[in-house]
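Open question from group meeting: does this chain pack into something compact, or does most of it stay loose? Before anyone orders reagents, we agreed to write out a predicted structure and look at it together. Recording both the input and the output here so the notebook holds the full record.
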Amino acid sequence: MTTLYGIANCDSVTKARTWLTEQGVDYGFVDFKKQGVPTALLPGWIATVGLDTLINRRGPTWRKLDAEVQARVVDATSAIAVMQAHSSVIKRPVVVWADGVVTVGFSRERFAERLAVCSS
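Structure tokens returned:
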């Protein structure tokens, strides 16, 4: 099963959920605000997509963090601590596809490619 992680009121998450539903994809949704950040999955996500992809350094949550906190995000351990404390710094949506591949962000084209792979 495909699982989408994010925040319910995020525009990108809403677009992704709508697209998946329109395609008839059976997926689960984990809302960081209601269910928390899945801490056990973060090291794998970081290893797969990298910190620069997973952490949204352009978003308002990151910009509001103290410069000292931002400067401490140098490795997986420090990044996980910040993501747990401030789930909105995680780029969204994070999708773990049925075949285990992890993607970050929404793109109709990339989602269609992933769906084709998972359906074959």
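Observations to bring back to the group:
DSSP finds eight helices and four strands in the chain.
Strands lie at 2-6, 27-31, 94-96, 102-104.
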